[in-house]
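Reopening: structure tokens for the iron/sulfur cluster complex, inputs below.
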Amino acid sequence: MRSLVLIGHGSHLNGESALAVYRYAELIRERGLYDEVIEGYWKEEPSLRQVLKTTASTDVTVIPLFISEGYFTEVVIPRELGLGHQGPVPPGGVARVIGGRTVRYTLPYGVHPSMTDVILARAREVLPDATAEDTALIVLGHGTTRNENSNKIVYHNAELLRQGGQFAEVHALFLDEDPKVGTWPEVVKAPRVVVVPFFASEGWHTLETIPEDMGLSGEVTVFPENPAGAQTVYYARPVGTHPRVADVILHLAEEASGAAGAGGDLERGHEHAWQVFLKQAQVGLRMGEVLIRPDSGVFEMRHALDEGLPGGDLKTLVTPEGVRDHIRFDDGGDHRPVHTLRNLPRGWRAVLSDHDLRRAVHYLYPAVVEETYAHTCHALRATPWPTTARRQTGIYARVQKATPEQVEHVAGDICKSCLRTRLWAGHKLPKTFLDGVPGGIPCAEACTLLVAEIREEVAGKRGQGAGH
Ligand code: SF4
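Re-run output (same inputs, fresh job):
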């Protein structure tokens, strides 16, 4: 049995941020090569601290869905997963045994050698008849003076494509460092120019900053009076959204587990947790804001406040992904990065098999079954705030300066809307939803939303809408 975990950045504010990870998870799931494909995030749930607990097998491969090596792939993700590794990840990845699971952590997909083919595929999409006689290729990276690794891979791919000889010229240009993308009319001589953004997703940079810096007006823009003469620019979509990235991810995963393809067993603690949960679901269960009831050989799940409403009055969902997509936003249309906040939308019901019920509950309340079961077995370890604060780096290191009063003030504000009970602050949870108390869900550690809010408080900016 094998589990594959795909890690994305996620966002506290933007519900679209996780979509690329969902899409790749679905593409890989369809191939059936792994027993499960699970998504995890830095700023959404399941969080990096929880995600390994949600895997069903003892053989886990974790792939960061990032375009380049850097702070997140070398510092934040390994630290939060508890890998005991910091710094550059070797080509074969890092393997550790964590809580009875063998966990392999790989390089990000963006540095895999086959990304050169993805750049080429994107270039051919926008200009199928690009030639070595009249077409230049610009591989466009973000670049940052803080992380030289992020440009290394752009230069490397540009060099490989130059050697491939399919273009008259190949240039590596950047948004945030020299050589900057705005200088392109001075460096590119060919009359036709293909620009491929080496970016993970479509967003502010690909839709606004790059076109603005280059003077583009759409997919094809003609510049009649450039220094090199008339030039036409063909603007491709970012590499990170190309379906072939799913193949790149699978290559990475297979390389990490070796040609023989390792395999593990069912993780026993995880399986016990779900068996206990399913037994309760078979007689009807209220968990957080939902009701789960057996219904003619399947299960029905709905918002507890919709109890008694005729099924025809509710939107019926029939897949775990349908549940996931429906509950990502509250009734006001706002993104829900923390799923145990009491803002589950109403007006839906899900009809699911027992297998799909597990997956749907995983999407609805990630890690809640595993952590609650562990709590009932006295096996859930709480992480006190000072430990969480000391672990923070980068822009979040500032939370180490928060006074206990500031932490309590912000937690009182944020956590009062959450179903979870703050074990990390010393609060007690004698009974859980598994004992019939619907809101009895433990919180073992401050979530990233709270950490971000405490950072704003320390900076004196809380409530000013500073970004997370
Ligand atoms: Fe909920 Fe607060 Fe725990 Fe975050 S820290 S999961 S808001 S109880």
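The chain has a mean pLDDT of 93. The longest strand covers residues 135-141. Marking as resolved unless the reporter disagrees.
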